[in-house]
């Protein structure tokens, strides 16, 4: 189960769950903790790639007119 659902407040923004999980993944990655790089640099290097793709798909589905019927991607 994603960390978002475990004792967290509801984020009213779109794709908030994916955003929170991506943020936590980046902050807990060895790139940030051991190498002292910024989360932005680690994201460019490919860390937490699956969450980044999920977040992109969620944001893209907001612009898709078919999302009215299918719902937003992600959680």
UniProtKB/TrEMBL annotation:
Keyword DNA-binding appears in the UniProt entry: no
Pfam families, per the entry: Pet191_N
Protein origin, superkingdom: Eukaryota
Keyword Transcription regulation annotated: no
Keywords tagged on the record: Disulfide bond
GO biological process: mitochondrial respiratory chain complex IV assembly
InterPro entries the record matches: Cyt_c_oxidase_assmbl_Pet191
GO cellular component, one term: mitochondrion
Family to which the UniProt record says this protein belongs: Belongs to the PET191 family.
Role of this protein: Involved in an early step of the mitochondrial complex IV assembly process.
The protein's name: Cytochrome c oxidase assembly factor 5
Source organism per UniProt: Mycteria americana (Wood stork)
């Amino acid at each position: 189960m994603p960390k978002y659902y475990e004792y967290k407040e509801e984020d009213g923004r779109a794709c908030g769950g994916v955003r929170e999980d991506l943020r936590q993944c980046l902050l807990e990655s060895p790139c940030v903790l051991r190498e002292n790089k910024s989360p932005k640099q680690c994201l460019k290097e490919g860390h937490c790639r699956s969450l980044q793709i999920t977040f992109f798909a969620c944001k893209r589905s907001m612009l898709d007119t078919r999302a009215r019927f299918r719902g937003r991607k992600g959680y």
